[in-house]
Amino acid sequence: MTTDPTHTEKMKALQTEQKKKTSEARDPGRGLILVHTGNGKGKSSSAFGVIIRALGWGQKVGVVQFIKGKWITGERQFFAKFADQVTWHTMGEGFTWDTQDKDRDIAAAEAAFARACEMMQSGDYDLIVLDEINIALRYDYLDVQAVIDGLKARSDRTSVILTGRDARPELMDYADLVSEMTEVKHPFKAGIKAQRGLDF
Amino acid sequence: MTTDPTHTEKMKALQTEQKKKTSEARDPGRGLILVHTGNGKGKSSSAFGVIIRALGWGQKVGVVQFIKGKWITGERQFFAKFADQVTWHTMGEGFTWDTQDKDRDIAAAEAAFARACEMMQSGDYDLIVLDEINIALRYDYLDVQAVIDGLKARSDRTSVILTGRDARPELMDYADLVSEMTEVKHPFKAGIKAQRGLDF
């Protein structure tokens, strides 16, 4: 059970390298823009996980949901208990195949984005999640340049996470972080139902 | 502002297809195994987001952290308030480059996995998160077949999420869902510090 000296040496070198990187890193002086995209699971749920981190530090959070409609989800039931720290707006009308009305979908997306802009400029939030906004951009319900302008006009205090598959390249260019969630294997494809607590 | 009839038709067809898929899907009769891997951001945070969903439905959750040590994170501060619903064990000793001691790392991983097995077999949890366990597998601190055997022995009630980069292929074979988070762009690479509320 003696400790491997080669391992210790390697780890010391790695530690030095990590410390150097960390000490050289700077504070951005402004909230960051994060994009979660791809066809895999985890885009919205990781945004909810980041909300938890923010709440753990006593920060204020806003959420605008662009697509999801009024059905009950675990996350909405949960965050409803934190109304003093989390402002939650579900402004979608549901899936495009359920609304079947493009004008209505566009109006809903525009109203949601107007609300998002107010919140981003207010200076009241440390973190704002624009959930599924990439879907609204993909269908041209929103103009990508207008969305980037809205992000640029945010308060310095505010970081923003934008979720949804097929994120626009212009948006990824502007973002500080882009993470792509790729589906390697999915139970729904194997004929398994969406599960309460896991999927919604 | 008339509604586009082609759009409506297309959406009707899509709705029919979605309804068919949903109605044919079956209940798995057992908790699912989910793997979050890849080099990008969102593996642990999306597991925390799924915890929120589970809590929103009144479910019981367990977390075992295999690598992260005792430093303070937003998520730990937050979930500490839900001790009646969330059992949280941080059993790592920190990054391998900080411990610099392989025997100690292995002992920590084995103790964490023994705890995880007890929890998975207990029948007390709807969801268990084995955070960063893939790192322990990657360094051979744990044996992949032993981990799969542990998962197989879980209570039918219990779903398990395993996080960390470089997930073992054998584990991905056994899992019901695999989502790979890929780093497209990262602020740390651009010299920006890890941010409280976003990164920890």
Automatic annotation (TrEMBL), chains A, B:
Main location: cytoplasm
Listed pathway(s): Cofactor biosynthesis; adenosylcobalamin biosynthesis; adenosylcobalamin from cob(II)yrinate a,c-diamide: step 2/7
MF terms in GO: ATP binding; corrinoid adenosyltransferase activity
Catalysed reactions, semicolon-separated: 2 cob(II)alamin + reduced [electron-transfer flavoprotein] + 2 ATP = 2 adenosylcob(III)alamin + 2 triphosphate + oxidized [electron-transfer flavoprotein] + 3 H(+); 2 cob(II)yrinate a,c diamide + reduced [electron-transfer flavoprotein] + 2 ATP = 2 adenosylcob(III)yrinate a,c-diamide + 2 triphosphate + oxidized [electron-transfer flavoprotein] + 3 H(+)
InterPro entries from the UniProt entry: CblAdoTrfase_CobA, P-loop_NTPase
Gene3D superfamilies in UniProt: P-loop containing nucleotide triphosphate hydrolases
EC number(s) per entry: 2.5.1.17
Region of interest called Disordered, as start-end residue ranges on this chain: 1-31
Described function: Required for both de novo synthesis of the corrin ring for the assimilation of exogenous corrinoids. Participates in the adenosylation of a variety of incomplete and complete corrinoids.
Protein name (Swiss-Prot/TrEMBL): Corrinoid adenosyltransferase
Source organism of this protein record: Hyphomonas chukchiensis
